[in-house]
Specification:
The chain is of the alpha+beta class. The protein has six helices and 24 strands.
Length: 362
């Protein structure tokens, strides 16, 4: 039998093609997973061990139904977004009608929770517990998600122990509507979401919450068919902050400063006496004797600076491309950039970061 040139070519190149595809797959996997040198396997375990400290089990007492009738309690999931104040996100449908709500944290302590508010349109509930030594989950940016991004769903399915399921973002970034899902902003995933997962986080490969588990497309028994939905974290945080403001509480910052690698002189910083407080930004500033940067002495809770992720002890070095020598120059720079977002380069400890500060018109 005569072998064609095409067959000869495929026979010769196929092994190289397979090896190339395998190498590409392993490289892509290595970017998302961490290699455990001791066991020789790729794993998400380090990320999940850190994230699970912020994920809570929600146990409900009897529910109040219509006409005064009481129904059985239930179980759901949630996660801590503000450790100092004990603020927790979950779904509205998880806590709806519950007479009593208990939150079980990762250290197996139980706390009575109160509902600060809910949003029916988003299916979001904001809870508060009085507790110390909590750990909050890092928040990601759902606006940057793309179809194919890896995600991990974490929660307490069917009331079992905390579990994680791996999938990808199947659809989202806008409104998802159809016969089986409401017309609202949603993320779609093929990771397994089951009853009890509701209110838990969608995690990206960095362990940041990019969504809130909310519903599934399932069979008659409520078992997942590989189509699950979540609230984009940007939508959830916006709704939560509206609820917090109604409770006269400061909003939760969702602007995480990004660490940058940039060379700045490590001049010894000595504090001077000059102080200035631009009330619009909620900053109390102190110029430095080195004339390199401005030290932040205080950040007002709920201020624009607080929302940008700035903290007391940070040293502002640049506004956009302008070096900042003292507090007077900083105020002058901000005054020329009304109704704009400005790039702020600052130093925290020995590391340099960037964030963006919204400058409002006075």
């Amino acid at each position: 039998m005569q072998i064609s040139r095409t067959q000869k070519y495929l026979t010769a190149t196929l092994p190289f093609l397979v090896v190339s595809l395998l190498a590409f797959a392993l490289t892509s996997q290595a970017q998302a997973f961490r290699l455990d040198q001791g066991r020789g396997v790729y794993t998400l375990a380090p990320m999940l061990k850190k994230a699970k400290l912020s994920i809570v089990r929600i146990q409900l007492g009897k529910r109040r139904w219509s006409r005064g009738k009481a129904g059985p309690g239930g179980i759901g999931s949630g996660f801590i977004v503000d450790a100092k104040r004990g603020i927790i996100l979950t779904n509205r449908h998880v806590v709806k009608g519950a007479r009593r709500i208990y939150v079980l944290t990762s250290d197996r302590k139980s706390y009575r929770a109160r509902v600060l508010g809910t949003n029916k349109n988003v299916d979001l509930a904001v809870l508060k517990i009085e507790a110390r030594n909590l750990t909050q989950l890092k928040l990601g940016n759902s606006e940057t998600l793309e179809i194919g991004d890896m995600n991990v769903v974490v929660g307490f399915p069917f009331g079992l122990a905390m579990s994680a399921s791996l999938g990808i973002i199947s659809a989202g970034g806008g409104k998802i509507s159809g016969r089986y899902v409401e017309d609202r902003d949603s993320l779609q995933t093929d990771a397994a979401i089951n009853p009890g997962n509701s209110g838990g986080p969608f995690l990206n490969s960095r362990g940041e919450a990019v969504g809130v588990n909310t519903s599934i497309l399932g069979d008659n028994g409520g078992t997942s068919l590989g189509i699950g939905f979540g609230i984009p974290i940007n939508v959830a945080i916006k709704s939560m902050n509206q609820i917090l403001r109604r409770n006269k509480m400061a909003a939760v910052s969702h602007n995480t400063p990004k660490q940058i690698a940039q060379a700045f002189p490590d001049t010894l910083i000595k504090q001077a006496s000059l102080q200035n407080k631009p009330s619009q930004f909620g900053l109390t500033l102190q110029s430095l004797a080195s004339h390199i940067g401005v030290l932040i002495k205080k950040v007002d809770v709920g201020s624009l600076a607080n929302m940008a992720g700035l903290q007391s002890g940070d040293t502002i070095l640049k506004i956009d491309n302008a070096n900042i020598a003292d507090s007077k120059q900083l105020v002058q720079q901000l005054a020329t950039k009304k109704n704009r977002k400005v790039r702020v380069i600052f130093k925290r400890g020995e590391d340099h970061y960037e964030t963006f500060l919204q400058v409002m018109a006075s």
